Amino acid sequence: MEEIKILVFEDEWNTIKGSFDLANIYAFDGRLKCIAKSRSQDIDFTSWNGEYQAVFVDITLAKNTLWDGFNIVKEIEERQLIDLHKVVVMTGNSKVEEKLNEMGIDTDVVKIMYKPIAFNALADQLRRILNQ
Fold first, then answer.
1. What is the pLDDT of residues 23-42, one digit of tens each?
2. Which residue of 14, 54, 56, 58 is 20 to 30 Å from 111, comparing CA positions?
3. What are the helix (H) ranges across the chain?
């Protein structure tokens, strides 16, 4: 079975890890390999080279740093690191779509999932992204 590599930017990984674990077990027969980055500053964008099949980015409106979730999505778009159809923004804030649009990020392309994230909704989203 082919491994499916997913990158997840989430500073509170433990709060959503269970949903990814359950989606992996029930929908992907254990093929998902989630690489979680709790600090976006730790990512080296130059080493991607098609390594990931999907990217999940936590976005909060509370923080604005150089590498907050918005800027990660913008960097992915500008460098064309992965097709934006394979990028999912995770948030608990209903104003994120508005902010993404203000930044020129097409919210018809980038998916938005609102927390808490149920494992079955996560599995459905991943199936769509991976065309499975």
1. 999 999 999 999 999 877 77
2. 14
3. 13-28, 69-79, 96-102, 119-130
Distances (CA, A) of 2 to 29, 59, 121: 10, 30, 22
Contact 113, 10 (CB under 8 A): no
Residue 33's alpha-carbon distances to 3, 67, 109, 110, in angstroms, are 7, 23, 24, 21
Instruction: Kindly report whether the global pTM for this prediction surpasses the value 0.85.
Output: yes
By the 8 A CB rule, do 130 and 35 touch? no
Alpha-carbon dihedral angle through residues 2, 9, 43, 126, given to the nearest 10 degrees:
30
Count CB neighbours of 55 within 10 A: 24
Q: Which of 130, 117, 83 is nearest to 12 (CA)?
A: 117
